[in-house]
Amino acid sequence: MRRAVLAATLMATMLPGPAAYGGTIERACMKADRPNATRRLCSCIQDVANATLSGGERSKVAKFFKDPHKSQATRQSDRRTDEKFWLKYKQFGDIVTRHCG
Questions:
Q1: Per-residue pLDDT tens for 17-56?
Q2: Which partner for 9 in 3, 36, 38, 51 could form a disulfide, CB atoms 3.0-4.6 Å apart?
Q3: How many angstroms separate the CA atoms of 54 and 56, rounded?
Q4: Can you give the residue ranges of every domain in the chain?
Q5: Distances from the Cα of 79 to the Cαs of 50, 71, 82, 85, in angstroms?
Q6: What is the 8-class DSSP label of residue 17?
């Protein structure tokens, strides 16, 4: 499974598409004005998101850059949908760490 996700991520970086013009996560990452947020890193995070998250999930993650409290509220939520999303988000973060690190 992880190899398939990584392969999809690498293919997403090679194929033209919305990410080539900056996706929602890439733009939010760059606007967050964090010291380590380079175009290369933010683009890599977007590529992983394109390969692992749905459009709605990517939109939700982009909002975490603007308001980090939203991520904590999601993590602590008792809603089943938030719990499922948080597990997927953690996997996304692990892949980002390995692939974009």
A1: 444 457 999 999 999 888 889 999 999 999 999 999 999 9
A2: 51
A3: 5
A4: 2-100
A5: 25, 14, 5, 10
A6: S
